[in-house]
């Protein structure tokens, strides 16, 4: 059942009850998806600049050279953010803009842009929330081996120190990595994201070095901050794994899916160890994680917050559709089961109650305070004759997931904020400009920004919630 065939819900903004007064409301973006100015002021190519030039890699052969032109339109975009009434803006720094080539001294002009951005945000009463890495690895570091190479983790810690030295006096909230699963698996195993490699062993080495880079950067940031305020975290894309039936095969498929998608990352971060069952599964495929003495202690650096990017939960089966328990390579089957649920334009199932389940599981198993650092949906928006953008489907998506956060908090999950993805339509990676996640529409020909109905609903919901809390 496609969402387009379901009745549209017209929602009026109302106060959200069950949230504390200090609960954070935000919007989020990433550097390569919005900034443009790909070759200006000393910025060098990232792996995404290179990947976009590979024929067939990106829908329509598109790229982020201009994107939303945020680099030149930043002040007006900050004004837009402030007008939404959010208190926090999560954005990422472009590594090749700050440290061209991934080595050596910082690029003053690149840092100046982010200093201006942070100052603009503070001037409008919006808290900056920095992500150090949202997938735009300097191409020179990929040429030297990329994330499968240990040296990239060391370079990342150096870059983190440069960024904090320039911005730490005005930014308290720092996230090391965004979605290392995507960087490692989509980029190095499946080849559908930059750098486009297809090597499972290399992708698992990338997992370890991404996590090591996180730990080393976290240590560097703590040391640089000293006694200054610092809220430090990492952001993971997380979901749920539900068995199609109670059968042993389906439960085993969920164990494997959860192991590779969640525990492979959170167990070393929170507990200082890789899950033994996942290590055994990898060994059965001839893969060993490149762990050295001291690595796991570094990865388990203390965190203040866990960023949760949630888009959907999944159901799994341990047999193929014809009943076989093994795939063509002889490996146990882990098959995603397609359910009769409403879907987004990405063909992703809409599963808000599974966000509640996830948050409760994270509280139970890991005990780190959480913030929803991304949640949102792509739909095929249409501009009305009066210029408005009615997107009741996106508004309903946001409302249902905010309700899911409230439900999780009511049951004991320490969730401290919700950031809508995304502030505005942007370059959606391998989908180019074909998919629109924004609550603000961008006309790419004119760069005109238009508040969609979902943005107005979000703005008014935040205002009404705060009014009731006073």
UniProtKB/TrEMBL annotation:
Is Hydrolase included in the keywords of this UniProt record?
Answer: yes
Q: Which GO molecular function, any one, fits this protein according to its record? A: beta-galactosidase activity
> Which protein is depicted?
Beta-glucosidase
A family per Pfam: Glyco_hydro_1
Spell out the family assignment given in the record's similarity comment: Belongs to the glycosyl hydrolase 1 family.
Q: Where is the active site?
A: 374
Write out the entry's keywords from A to Z.
Carbohydrate metabolism, Cellulose degradation, Glycosidase, Hydrolase, Polysaccharide degradation
**Which EC number(s) does the record attach to this protein?**
3.2.1.21
- Tell me what organism the protein belongs to: Streptomyces rhizosphaericola
- InterPro entries attached here? GH, GH_1_N_CS, Glyco_hydro_1, Glyco_hydro_1_AS, Glyco_hydro_1_beta-glucosidase
- Catalyzed chemical reaction(s): Hydrolysis of terminal, non-reducing beta-D-glucosyl residues with release of beta-D-glucose
């Amino acid at each position: 059942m496609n969402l387009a065939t379901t009745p549209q819900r017209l929602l009026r903004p109302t106060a959200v009850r069950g949230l504390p007064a200090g609960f954070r409301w935000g919007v989020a973006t990433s550097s390569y998806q919005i900034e443009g100015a790909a070759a200006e002021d000393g910025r060098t190519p990232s792996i995404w600049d290179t990947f976009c030039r590979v024929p067939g890699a990106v829908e329509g052969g598109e790229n982020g050279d201009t994107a939303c032109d945020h680099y030149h339109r930043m002040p007006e975009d900050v004004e837009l953010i402030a007008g939404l009434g959010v208190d926090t803006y999560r954005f990422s720094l472009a590594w090749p803009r700050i440290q061209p080539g991934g080595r050596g001294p910082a690029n003053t002009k690149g840092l100046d842009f982010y200093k201006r951005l942070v100052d603009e945000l503070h001037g409008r009463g919006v808290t900056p929330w920095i992500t150090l890495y949202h997938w735009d690895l300097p191409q020179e570091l990929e040429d030297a081996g990329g994330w499968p190479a240990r040296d990239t983790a060391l370079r990342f810690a150096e870059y983190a120190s440069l960024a904090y030295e320039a911005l730490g006096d005005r930014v308290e909230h720092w996230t090391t990595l965004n979605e290392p699963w995507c960087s490692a698996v989509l980029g190095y195993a499946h080849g559908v994201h930059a750098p486009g490699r297809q090597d499972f062993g290399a992708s698992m080495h990338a997992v370890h070095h991404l996590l090591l880079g996180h730990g080393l950067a976290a240590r560097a940031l703590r040391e640089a901050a000293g006694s200054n305020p610092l809220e430090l975290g990492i952001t993971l894309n997380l979901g749920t794994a539900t068995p199609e039936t109670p059968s042993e095969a389906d439960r085993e498929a969920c164990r494997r899916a959860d192991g590779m998608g969640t525990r492979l990352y959170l167990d070393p971060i929170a507990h200082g160890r890789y899950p033994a069952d996942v290590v055994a599964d990898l060994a059965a495929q001839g893969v060993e994680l490149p762990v050295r003495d001291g690595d796991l202690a570094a990865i388990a650096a203390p965190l203040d917050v866990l960023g949760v990017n949630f888009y959907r939960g999944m159901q799994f089966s341990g047999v193929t559709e014809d009943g076989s328990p093994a795939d063509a390579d002889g490996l146990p089957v882990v098959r995603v089961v397609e359910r009769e649920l409403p879907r987004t334009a990405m063909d992703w199932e809409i599963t808000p109650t599974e966000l509640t389940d996830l948050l409760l599981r994270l509280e139970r198993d890991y005990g780190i305070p959480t913030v929803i650092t991304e949640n949102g949906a792509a739909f095929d928006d249409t501009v009305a004759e009066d210029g408005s953008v009615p997107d009741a489907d996106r508004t309903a998506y946001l409302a249902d997931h905010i309700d899911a956060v409230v439900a999780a908090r009511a049951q004991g999950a320490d969730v401290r904020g919700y950031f809508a993805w995304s502030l505005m339509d942007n370059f959606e990676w391998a989908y180019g400009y074909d998919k629109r996640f924004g609550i603000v529409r961008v006309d790419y020909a004119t760069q005109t920004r238009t508040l969609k109905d979902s943005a107005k609903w979000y703005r008014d919901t935040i205002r009404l919630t705060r009014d009731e809390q006073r």
